[in-house]
Amino acid sequence: MSILKEIRELTGLSQKQLAEWLGVSKSLVQFAENGQRNLPKEASAKLIAMTLPLQDLKDAAKANRSTAAVAFTNPAKLALHHKRKMTFHRRSAHALQQQLDKLTLRHPKLRARLALFDAMKKVDTASYKATDRDNTWLELMEWFSQDRIPATGPEEQELLRDKIEVHLAYAEVHRARCEWFEGMEKQV
């Protein structure tokens, strides 16, 4: 691998940025990187001066990969970030639980309402005079109730339970990360 490519991969510089520093064109850097052309003496001298620091950077990069300890510059900020995320997920889980509670109450009521409407269709209306308005109201209420049954049923309730579990799991992850960063802050 050419030294130009190593420098670019290690530092994240583009060919254009490296070419500007070396005082050559981007295409010349591209050709030199592929071994098709040589750089001018001044650009080569800059690269030679970079060889030792480049080796130090490569060694440091290898050491960083091999050690598990990472130095964070601001663990308090990261702890606060995770605390906010934890709070968000707990609140989301709480809101979803309230929604689930409403569904679990509403579903039996809708079933009871449908059973009542079904029974009302079979009732002899001789005891009272059923108007067209009464029949229309019964039909509409039955239709609305049937339309809402799937949205409150066991499948929808199970989906909400899954969402609650996911939010609580994320909240737990963020709680653990928050405590970890708070522990780092105390060590410093």
Describe this structure in words.
The structure is a single chain. By secondary structure, the protein is mostly helical. The protein folds into 2 domains: 3-66, 434 Repressor (Amino-terminal Domain) (Orthogonal Bundle); 75-187. The protein contains 7 helices and no strands. Helix 2 (15-22) crosses helix 3 (26-33), helix 5 packs antiparallel against helix 6 and helix 5 packs antiparallel against helix 7 (154-187).
Poorly predicted sequence stretches spanning 5 or more consecutive residues: none
In what range is the share of β-strand residues? under 5%
Largest sheet: none
Overall pLDDT level: 82
| Whole-number count of domains | 2
Order of helices and strands: HHHHHHH
**Terminal CA distance:** 41 Å
> Helix content range of the residues, please?
over 70%
Query: How many helical elements?
Result: 7
**Beta-strand segment tally:** 0
Evaluate the radius of gyration. Answer: 35 Å
Q: Brief description of this entry?
A:
With 188 residues, this protein is mainly α. The protein has seven helices and no strands.
